[in-house]
Amino acid sequence: MTTVAEHRAAVRGLVESHWHPATEVVPLGAALGRVLAEDARTPIDLPPFDNSQMDGYAVRSDAAAGPLRVTGHVAAGDPITSFAGGAVAIMTGAPMPVGADAVVPVEAVGTPGDFAAVGETIELRQPVERGTFVRARGSDLPGGSVLLEAGATLGPAQLGALAASGLSTAPVRARPRVLIVSTGAELAEPGEPLRTGAIYDANAVSLSAAITLAGGIALATGVYSDEPGHLRLALEAAGPVDLVVTSGGVSAGAHEVVRDTLEPLGVRFGSVALQPGGPQGLGAITVAGAATPVLCFPGNPVSSLVSFELFLRPVLRGDRPMLRVPLAASVDSPGTKHQVRRGRLTDAGTVELVGGPGSHLLAAYARSDVLVHLPVGLSRAEAGETVEVWRIDE
Ligand code: AMP
Ligand code: MG
């Protein structure tokens, strides 16, 4: 039996040896969630010039307490001026007059919003330290420095930082195209009437959503049959993709369509010491004329999503945020397998399990916000014992 760590490494090795994403340059408005293909440097200092952090008066830090004549007024967007002494009324974001080196907030010398006019005087109540309320040029990041490293996922702050640097596009990795194939003669398309003995295909939708959230392009197809010929036809009809993910038909039953079809093509099937998600397959097959990695997940909906979380998401998107949290109640685990349970963080700072260990309990999974890891060697954990959990509520 393979360990979870071994299978994770095998999946990573398989995917990374076949998938070499091209670089695409996309407008920032279309780059949300994309992965940066190369380091991004800011071409300009951030901020680009010394400016005021407050509405107030620009002064010199060597000015003594007492009256100061107002010698100018600068607003955000004004050009850089030179300091003519005394105090210069200055608005937030306005360039510091060259020669002034501190800002006194307006409320420290008078009524907020009520600025003295040029020629009037203000009362400096106490001397001010150099640099006070001045946002120095380059203090966030000097021009030419690396702003974001290759591999960074572009979220709101990352996109904002690129825009603040004046960049309008970003070089990002092409998204992996993933063909998702759910198999099983018992499956029916959601929205269709349910005949006796049938269940709805949950995996096509859940795996597609998981792939999309992980930055991939999901192409789903249902093979609602356990005939190897039907699966073969579906794979022959597929266009070029970077990866194939199948669900169902991988264990030891009489009609294991995925195993029966792909094992002769060189895909390896075996057991991982994992619950749920034990039976797994991986290998490479020819799709649209190209060697394409294929991962075969078990069909139970919880098993297939847990398989995605443990094996594929780390390769496509990186690790989930991990926490160590005390259990709200005791739990038993198989001990010889890495068990993954579904859970919810409580206001008390503990984690409570949602539903049992059964791999069909998708509704319970849907009410969960963490995966709870009970590793090999752990057969019981008491309330208050700390366990590793992964946040899945993104
Ligand atoms: P299998 O891995 O094909 O042996 O399937 C294991 C269990 O998962 C069976 O109870 C199947 O009916 C169920 N199952 C398989 N595929 C799906 C699917 N796409 N959606 C929901 N349940 C499924
Ligand atoms: Mg099946």
Task: Give the topology.
Layout: H1 4-18, E1 23-27, E2 40-41, E3 51-52, E4 56-59, E5 66-74, E6 87-90, E7 102-105, E8 121-124, E9 134-135, E10 146-148, H2 156-164, E11 169-173, E12 177-183, E13 187-188, E14 199-200, H3 203-213, E15 217-223, H4 228-237, E16 243-247, H5 257-262, E17 268-271, E18 274-275, E19 279-287, E20 290-297, H6 301-316, E21 322-326, E22 331-332, E23 338-345, E24 351-353, H7 362-366, E25 370-374, E26 380-381, E27 386-391
Parallel strand pairs: 5-6, 12-15, 12-16, 13-14, 16-20, 18-23
Antiparallel strand pairs: 1-11, 2-10, 3-9, 4-6, 4-7, 5-8, 17-19, 19-20, 21-27, 22-26, 23-24, 23-25, 25-27
Helix pairs in contact: 1-6, 3-6
The protein binds adenosine monophosphate and magnesium ion.
Cofactor: Mg(2+)
InterPro entries: MoaB/Mog-like_dom_sf, MoaB/Mog_dom, MoeA-like, MoeA_C_domain_IV, MoeA_C_domain_IV_sf, MoeA_linker/N, MoeA_linker/N_sf
Pfam family, one: MoCF_biosynth
